[in-house]
Amino acid sequence: MPLRFIFSFGLRFINTNFVYKKLHELVFINFPMRMYRYSAIIPVMVMFLTQSFSQHANQGDKHNGAAPSLAAGDNNVYLAYAAGDTILFCSSNNKGKSFSAPMQAGILPQLSTGGGRGPQIAVVKDYLVIAAADKTGNIYSFIKNKNEEQWRKGRRINDISNVAKEAFVSLASNDNGEVYAVWLDLRDNNKNKIAGAKSFDGGKTWSKNKIIYASPDGSVCECCKPSVEMKDKMVVIMFRNWLNGNRDLFITTSIDGGLTFDKAKQVGEGNWKLNACPMDGGGLVIKNVNTISTVWRREGDIYTCEAGKKEKKIVTGKQVTIAGNNNNDFICFVNNGKVYCIKPGGSIVELGPGSYPRLVMVNEETAVCAWQQDKQISYATVNR
User: Fold this and answer.
1) Do the domain assignments include residue 105?
2) pLDDT, tens only, 124-152
């Protein structure tokens, strides 16, 4: 092939129309007649096309810190993360394209941040609430009125001290101003159980704690973060169990605001026999009373299903999370040290190097993902 053609093409590959025209010409017109001349350039052209149509994630500036958490409400996106024992907070009013300068939400001595731990944020009507656990086994809330600058410390969430030593906590809220917290709890027998508490006042005070599930084999998976979602009076919790040596995901549902929960049921059909903890809790989305979408990891693969239905393997990876609504789901995961997002429709976009992504839907078309890498927080918007 003439060198001047390669040089000319190299200068013009960013012109998408040119690439399509040339690809069409090569594949459908000239290729059958000139296979020996053009076969070498087609992989290069396909690579350029793939690159030009995979950049649908707009990355913002990095923040120094670890363990991000995201929430969205009133067309704003809220980010909480940790820097040592300091809990930091910032917000975005442009759908996650950029965030405000961080402000201090609180200081929690011995704040726990590794393996998916860290401050968890939720939006509750006029309030923002953060829950964070320390290494002594206690979980505290921090509250801010949306119209005020100052954060203040709320009550301790666990009503027996030092029982949340794994420091895994998740938060969810509904449109009624209620918040539900879920964590791993050691009370009574020093075995990890799924415990929960509810706040009716935006995180200022918390109900008497409730043991939601205790494994008949002694303990649930000790190092996997449970997930919780709320919709009206519906509270759904997903956690990794430990039964018969298997580390499988289970789900339990309440339809009375968390007063009672049904019998926990396994998600998916397969089993993962493992004498270790995968540090991987999965995620869920409540579509409606009859539809709950779940994602989780088994061995080296990621699966999805509607609760109670057949599972589907979707990709190789780990540390998966999901955000969605009745029409769309965005799924983020990690593979070989890089964060990816599966968009509605199934296309995948690479976001960047990192681990433990967190994901939130801003509207029908856009999601925001935040993750950590080398003591920094990265974030990106992903459009449908």
Assistant:
1) yes
2) 988 999 999 999 999 999 999 998 999 99
